[in-house]
Amino acid sequence: MFRRICENDWAIYRRYVDTFYHTDAVNAPVPVENYRLTFDEMLRSDAYLKGYIFEYEGKPCGFALLSKTFSQEAGGVSVTIEEIYMEPEYRGKGLATEFFEWLKAQPGIMRLRIEVEDDNEGAKRLYERMGFELLPYLQMVIDKQRTIHK
Questions:
Q1: Which of 9, 72, 87, 122 is the most buried (most CB within 10 A)?
Q2: Its pTM surpasses 0.85
Protein backbone atom coordinates (compact mmCIF):
# COMPACT_ATOMS: atom_id res chain seq x y z
CA MET A 1 0.00 0.00 0.00
CA PHE A 2 1.07 3.60 -0.48
CA ARG A 3 -0.26 6.99 0.51
CA ARG A 4 0.54 10.64 -0.13
CA ILE A 5 3.15 12.20 2.11
CA CYS A 6 1.71 14.51 4.75
CA GLU A 7 3.14 17.06 7.17
CA ASN A 8 3.62 14.46 9.92
CA ASP A 9 5.91 12.36 7.68
CA TRP A 10 9.03 14.56 7.89
CA ALA A 11 11.05 12.17 10.10
CA ILE A 12 10.09 9.13 8.00
CA TYR A 13 10.81 10.94 4.73
CA ARG A 14 14.15 12.28 5.94
CA ARG A 15 15.29 8.83 7.10
CA TYR A 16 14.36 7.16 3.81
CA VAL A 17 15.86 9.89 1.63
CA ASP A 18 19.09 9.82 3.61
CA THR A 19 19.24 6.03 3.32
CA PHE A 20 18.49 6.19 -0.41
CA TYR A 21 21.24 8.72 -1.07
CA HIS A 22 23.77 6.51 0.67
CA THR A 23 23.08 3.41 -1.43
CA ASP A 24 24.52 2.19 -4.71
CA ALA A 25 21.30 3.31 -6.41
CA VAL A 26 22.70 6.84 -6.76
CA ASN A 27 26.06 8.11 -7.86
CA ALA A 28 26.32 11.04 -5.42
CA PRO A 29 24.61 12.23 -2.25
CA VAL A 30 22.74 15.53 -2.21
CA PRO A 31 23.03 18.21 0.47
CA VAL A 32 20.85 17.39 3.48
CA GLU A 33 19.22 20.82 3.28
CA ASN A 34 17.72 19.76 -0.06
CA TYR A 35 15.63 17.13 1.75
CA ARG A 36 13.74 19.83 3.61
CA LEU A 37 13.38 22.05 0.53
CA THR A 38 11.84 19.14 -1.34
CA PHE A 39 9.56 18.12 1.52
CA ASP A 40 8.31 21.69 1.96
CA GLU A 41 7.62 21.99 -1.78
CA MET A 42 5.60 18.76 -1.74
CA LEU A 43 3.45 20.16 1.06
CA ARG A 44 3.12 23.59 -0.55
CA SER A 45 1.73 22.35 -3.86
CA ASP A 46 1.63 19.33 -6.11
CA ALA A 47 2.42 21.43 -9.19
CA TYR A 48 5.94 20.00 -9.41
CA LEU A 49 6.28 17.21 -6.88
CA LYS A 50 4.30 14.48 -5.21
CA GLY A 51 5.62 12.19 -2.54
CA TYR A 52 4.35 8.85 -1.32
CA ILE A 53 5.07 6.65 1.66
CA PHE A 54 4.92 2.89 1.18
CA GLU A 55 3.39 0.89 4.02
CA TYR A 56 3.20 -2.80 4.73
CA GLU A 57 0.80 -4.02 7.40
CA GLY A 58 0.47 -0.42 8.62
CA LYS A 59 4.23 0.14 8.97
CA PRO A 60 6.19 2.62 6.80
CA CYS A 61 8.70 0.79 4.62
CA GLY A 62 9.74 3.12 1.80
CA PHE A 63 8.99 6.19 -0.27
CA ALA A 64 8.65 7.51 -3.81
CA LEU A 65 9.17 11.01 -5.13
CA LEU A 66 7.59 12.07 -8.44
CA SER A 67 8.06 15.19 -10.51
CA LYS A 68 5.98 16.26 -13.47
CA THR A 69 6.24 18.33 -16.59
CA PHE A 70 4.21 18.77 -19.74
CA SER A 71 5.80 17.05 -22.72
CA GLN A 72 5.04 18.09 -26.24
CA GLU A 73 6.71 14.87 -27.41
CA ALA A 74 4.40 12.72 -25.26
CA GLY A 75 1.36 14.91 -25.85
CA GLY A 76 0.65 15.51 -22.20
CA VAL A 77 1.93 15.14 -18.67
CA SER A 78 5.25 13.36 -18.19
CA VAL A 79 5.93 12.01 -14.71
CA THR A 80 9.46 11.18 -13.61
CA ILE A 81 9.93 8.79 -10.75
CA GLU A 82 12.77 10.78 -9.21
CA GLU A 83 13.37 8.43 -6.32
CA ILE A 84 11.92 5.17 -5.13
CA TYR A 85 13.23 3.27 -2.14
CA MET A 86 11.99 0.25 -0.26
CA GLU A 87 13.57 -1.17 2.87
CA PRO A 88 15.31 -4.42 1.86
CA GLU A 89 13.06 -6.69 3.94
CA TYR A 90 9.98 -5.34 2.12
CA ARG A 91 11.27 -5.78 -1.40
CA GLY A 92 9.57 -8.48 -3.46
CA LYS A 93 6.21 -8.03 -1.74
CA GLY A 94 4.60 -6.34 -4.75
CA LEU A 95 4.52 -2.80 -3.33
CA ALA A 96 6.53 -1.19 -6.13
CA THR A 97 4.61 -3.18 -8.74
CA GLU A 98 1.31 -1.97 -7.28
CA PHE A 99 2.63 1.60 -7.34
CA PHE A 100 3.81 1.42 -10.95
CA GLU A 101 0.53 -0.15 -12.08
CA TRP A 102 -1.40 2.60 -10.32
CA LEU A 103 0.76 5.27 -11.96
CA LYS A 104 0.29 3.75 -15.41
CA ALA A 105 -3.49 3.81 -14.91
CA GLN A 106 -3.67 7.49 -13.95
CA PRO A 107 -5.62 9.51 -16.52
CA GLY A 108 -3.70 12.36 -18.12
CA ILE A 109 -0.25 10.87 -17.56
CA MET A 110 1.14 10.24 -21.02
CA ARG A 111 4.71 9.27 -20.10
CA LEU A 112 6.54 7.76 -17.16
CA ARG A 113 10.29 8.12 -16.82
CA ILE A 114 12.78 6.70 -14.37
CA GLU A 115 16.55 6.82 -14.06
CA VAL A 116 18.58 3.83 -12.98
CA GLU A 117 22.28 3.30 -12.42
CA ASP A 118 23.70 1.07 -15.15
CA ASP A 119 24.89 -1.58 -12.68
CA ASN A 120 21.59 -1.79 -10.73
CA GLU A 121 20.46 -5.01 -12.40
CA GLY A 122 17.61 -5.78 -9.97
CA ALA A 123 16.00 -2.38 -10.49
CA LYS A 124 16.46 -2.60 -14.27
CA ARG A 125 14.71 -5.99 -14.34
CA LEU A 126 11.80 -4.63 -12.28
CA TYR A 127 11.44 -1.55 -14.49
CA GLU A 128 11.55 -3.62 -17.67
CA ARG A 129 8.84 -5.93 -16.26
CA MET A 130 6.77 -2.80 -15.65
CA GLY A 131 7.11 -1.85 -19.32
CA PHE A 132 9.91 0.72 -19.18
CA GLU A 133 12.25 0.81 -22.17
CA LEU A 134 15.79 2.15 -22.46
CA LEU A 135 16.02 5.52 -24.15
CA PRO A 136 18.39 5.63 -27.13
CA TYR A 137 20.05 8.88 -26.10
CA LEU A 138 22.04 10.47 -23.32
CA GLN A 139 20.79 13.23 -21.11
CA MET A 140 22.91 16.25 -20.33
CA VAL A 141 22.56 18.62 -17.41
CA ILE A 142 23.80 21.85 -15.93
CA ASP A 143 23.52 21.38 -12.18
CA LYS A 144 24.19 24.73 -10.50
CA GLN A 145 24.54 23.17 -7.07
CA ARG A 146 27.23 20.74 -8.12
CA THR A 147 29.03 23.41 -10.16
CA ILE A 148 29.15 25.70 -7.12
CA HIS A 149 30.62 22.98 -4.89
CA LYS A 150 33.40 21.89 -7.28
A1: 9
A2: yes
Give the residues across from 41 on adjacent strands: none
Q: Integer distance in angstroms from the first to the last C-alpha of the chain?
A: 41
Measure Cα distances from 43 to 10, 51, 53, 55, 143 in Å: 10, 9, 14, 19, 24
Buried b (16+ CB within 10 A) or exposed e, 43-58: eeeeeebbbbbbbbee
| Interval 6-11 mean pLDDT | 97
Which CATH number does the domain housing residue 131 bear?
3.40.630.30
Q: Which among 133, 71, 65 is positioned nearest to 99, based on CA atoms? A: 65
102 three-class SS: helix
How many structural domains is the chain composed of? 1
Range of the domain at 44: 2-149
φ, ψ at 64 (rounded to 5°): -140, 145
